[in-house]
Structure formats: C-alpha cells, structure tokens
Structure to design on (410 residues):
C-alpha cells in the first residue's frame, strides 16, 4: 500500500476539499494540520447539518407536540440509531449521548461506582491512560475509598499483559482501559484483555476516544461492557459524545444527573426514572450536535475503514521512516496507529512545537493529559503528530523539513 499523494487522495479517499478549513493558511503558509488526536477538522456535510438544523428545524426534543419538536426528535433518535449501527450495539437503549469521552467515563465511575463498588473494591486502569480515565476513579476513591490498581507498560510502550493478569483479585469490580494510547499510538489487544477480565467476572470499560476515528468498532464482537468516545475526534462537532453500555449494566445503574427528561413521575415524596437511555440524559441534550455527529459517522462509513486504515497506516509508517532520518530523533511508543510522539536532541517540546507552528504546521506538545505516563517515560512532554484520513505524504514531508529547519537553528 503506497502513501497517497494529494491528488490520489482527492480521487480515492476523501476529497480534502470536503474540509474547508484545510485550504486556509496560517502565517501566510498553507496549514498543515497534524493535531488530529486532539480534535479533527469537520467536513462540509457536518457544518451543513449544524446550519441546516438551526435554520430549519430547531426545537427542543422529546418535549413538544408541535411540528418542529417532532422533527428535531426524529433527527435526534435517528442519530442514536446511526451511532448504534456504527458501533454495532444491540439496541438504541444502549447508546447514551454525553458531552464526550470524559463525561462518559465520569458517568460510569459515578453511577457504576455508586451501584457496584464499596470501600476496598478495586478498579484496574493502565499506566498509559488519559487523565479522563484516571481522575474520575480518584474522585470515586475519595468518595468511597476504592482502590486503583495500575497495569504497567513495557519499555516498548505496550501493556504488560503478564502483570495485568496478576492484578485481578476477588475485589476487582471493573477494568477501564484505553484502546489506543493518545501518546504512544499503541493499539492495545482489547479483545484479549476483555476475555481475561471476563474470565475473572470483571466487566470492562474501553476508552475508544483514539480508536473510533481510525478503525471499525464492534461492541458485540469485542464484548466490552462499556465503550466511550467523542464526536469531535471522529469529524463530528464538539460537545457530543457517546457512552455505550450493555443494557444489563445500565438498567442496574442509578442516574448520573437529575433533571428534565430522565424522569418517569416526579413528586416531592418520590420520583421514578425514565427508561434507557433517557435515564442518563438529564436536561436538554445537544440534539443539533447529535444530528451532525450522525452525518460525520455517515461520512466515515461512506469512505470505509478499510481505505481509512490503509491510508493512515501507510502515512504513519512513511512518517516514522522519514522522521527517523533526523539526527537526535527519539520516538516514544510503537505508533501502531496514527500517532507519533517524539523529541529531537535537547530541543524542548514546546520550542519545537512553537517554531513548527510558525511554519504553518500544527502539532501538539506537552504531557497530552497523561502525566503518569510522562513520569513512567521520565520526560516532561513530547511533540505529537497525529494523522487523519485527509492528511497527505506532502504534509509529512513538510513536517520533516520543518523539524530539520528548527533543528539547525539550535
Ligand atoms: N481518552 C483519550 C485516550 C483521549 O485521547 C482523550 C482526548 O484527547 C480523551 C479520553 C478525552 O476526550 P474528550 O476531551 O473529548 O472528552
């Protein structure tokens, strides 16, 4: 599989022109956007979906008998069905709209934690987690006295599965683990991990923030108990995300927030709760973002993960090869997926990122919301280039030339 040039990409994958922002310039130079792990750019169809809903449909969902409310409700529920099909969930009752991965994980920590965890009970996370899969468990620890156990990583940046197998105890209640590391680009063998956890009767939450944009997700084939992802990382709008949960768990979990729409009947003496998934959707949801997320998922499905994976994989391999020619280049992690973290010589990651920015190249610098991982690696931060379906070989070349230019300044 060769790496696509701009022209081939235009013809075979997704027209870059579908993403209007990619044709802008910064500091008078063409934008090279390589910060897709943080957020992806939006295709015109997503932007149109937002505009169209505010122009023609806008009304609160599930609350009105009037025409617009009915139509907005239909779009919102169709969006839920699109998500269900996209991740192969059994039913729409298992699809809860949230604000993003962070809120999805907080929901599970608070609600699953409330129902199923007591003082001394244990949750397993890993050394490569994003803060959003660490801090919610620490909040639960402060509230209920649970214990957080951490699976170490190897020097290559992979999970130490042998060590993981030793972490299960009769008190383990949940394993919460990222599918793809946002720093190392490691694709974790989540299927094996889920099998291992289930053999101990332990349910599993998968943080799929960095996997859903890059590879097909099938929650039934995986047999995960929960899966969380963010719309904005998969070409959708900000402010919308998804929590998938097996019905058998969600049914038994208490509401996360109270308010409108999550109730059955309310009196000052007693309140009953709505059915799934509405029990977990208190207040007016971002129904416009939900519709636009569905358009983003349609867009991705229209291209297909076979083509996306092949393109992104070839691009990542090419980038690693080219970057490795740069004197002083140090990589962190295996970059199985579309993420490359590195440092060059003694150049501070922030200096490198800032100077690349002046060349029009957007990369991420810092600890990437994974400070415990930085401690493990013995560094303060890295520069991270992360790719999306619209990135090209020419952009990788621009990155390599940019780094070389910065290197020569030091
Ligand atoms: N988990 C991982 C692995 C991530 O990379 C991120 C964001 O970078 C998150 C969780 C949090 O996502 P959000 O900020 O969209 O909630």
């Amino acid at each position: 599989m060769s790496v696509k040039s701009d022209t081939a990409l235009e013809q075979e994958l997704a027209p870059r022109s579908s993403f209007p922002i990619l044709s802008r310039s910064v500091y008078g130079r063409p934008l090279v956007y390589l910060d897709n792990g943080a957020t992806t750019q939006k295709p015109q169809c997503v932007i149109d979906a937002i505009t169209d809903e505010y122009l023609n449909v806008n009304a609160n969902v599930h609350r009105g008998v009037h025409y617009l409310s009915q139509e907005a409700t239909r779009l919102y529920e169709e969006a839920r069905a699109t998500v269900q099909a996209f991740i192969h969930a059994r039913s729409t009752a298992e699809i809860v709209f949230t604000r993003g991965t962070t809120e999805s994980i907080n929901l599970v920590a608070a609600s699953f934690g409330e129902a199923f965890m007591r003082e001394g009970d244990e949750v397993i996370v890993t050394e490569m987690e994003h803060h959003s899969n660490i801090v919610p468990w620490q909040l639960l620890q402060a509230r209920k006295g649970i214990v957080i156990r951490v699976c170490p990583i190897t020097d290559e940046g992979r999970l130490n599965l042998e060590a993981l197998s030793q972490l299960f105890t009769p008190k383990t209640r949940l394993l919460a683990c990222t599918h793809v590391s946002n720093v190392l680009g490691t694709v974790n063998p989540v299927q094996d991990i889920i099998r291992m956890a289930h053999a101990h009767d332990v349910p599993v939450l998968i943080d799929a923030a960095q996997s859903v944009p890059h590879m097909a997700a099938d929650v039934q084939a995986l047999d995960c108990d929960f899966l969380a992802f963010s719309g904005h990382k998969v070409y959708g709008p900000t402010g919308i995300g998804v929590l998938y949960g097996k019905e058998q768990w969600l049914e038994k979990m208490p509401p996360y927030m109270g308010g409108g729409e999550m109730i059955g009947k309310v009196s000052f003496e007693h309140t009953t709760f709505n059915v799934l998934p509405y029990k977990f959707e208190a207040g007016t949801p971002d129904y416009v973002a939900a519709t636009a997320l569905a358009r983003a998922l349609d867009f991705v499905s229209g291209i297909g993960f076979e083509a996306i994976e092949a393109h992104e994989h070839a691009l990542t391999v090419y980038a690693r090869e080219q970057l490795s020619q740069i004197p002083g280049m140090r990589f962190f992690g295996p970059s199985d997926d579309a993420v490359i973290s590195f440092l060059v010589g003694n150049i501070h990651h922030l200096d490198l990122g800032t100077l690349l920015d002046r060349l029009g190249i957007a990369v991420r610098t810092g600890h990437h919301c994974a400070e415990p991982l930085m401690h493990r690696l013995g560094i303060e931060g890295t520069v991270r280039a992360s790719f999306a379906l619209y990135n090209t070989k020419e952009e990788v070349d621009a990155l390599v030339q940019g780094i070389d230019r910065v290197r020569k300044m030091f």
Remarks:
- The chain has a mean pLDDT of 96.
- The two ends are 36 Å apart (CA to CA).
